[in-house]
Amino acid sequence: MHQIPVYPSNQIAGYSPQGQQNHQQRYNRHNNRRSQSGASNASSNGHSNNSSKTTNVYISGLSPDVTDESFAEMCNSYGKIISSKAIINNETNECKGFGFVMYENEEQARNAMNELNKKGFHVSFAKDSLSARLKNLQDEESTNIYISNIPLNMTNEQFLELFAPHNVISHTILKDQNGVSRGVGFAR
């Protein structure tokens, strides 16, 4: 029997913002789309992800001397904070001008937004990152597995035997247009 490396395919890198102005523009576009799409926040898999969208707040207009601690202290007066993060430039150790805070409930988040807007900050509900959106869509019951370096003459039946005694929902060996194995397969 061959030793075949197995790699889960659910490791997706997160999103990293590229500057305060562009970041704020993306959030403004997101909020415009969200307000136009109506009140439904249910995702395509039937689960609602309403709670994180309506409690996670994006705040921009922070000064460079803001720290995680001073940011949390500023936001704490508007409600109970679940988490907070001022985004800091690793090279200069200065705040990039924005941060995120998640409140315990929507009422607290909306109160913070109203009050911080009055103080001149640009505030909106935060958009889920790509990795968070993908995680919400993933099937908790199964995992996709990518397998490389499989023998070119391996059949689908032999490939399936590699996973015994586990329950395999679907599997395939990738082939070129001539039907020749590429030495790569997937199983779920």
UniProtKB/TrEMBL annotation:
InterPro entries: Nucleotide-bd_a/b_plait_sf (IPR012677), RBD_domain_sf (IPR035979), RRM_dom (IPR000504). Residues 55-128, 143-188 form the RRM domain. Keywords: Repeat, RNA-binding. Coiled coil: none annotated. It comes from the Eukaryota. Residues 34-52 have a biased composition (Low complexity). Residues 1-56 are annotated as: Disordered. Signal peptide: none annotated. This is RNA-binding domain-containing protein.
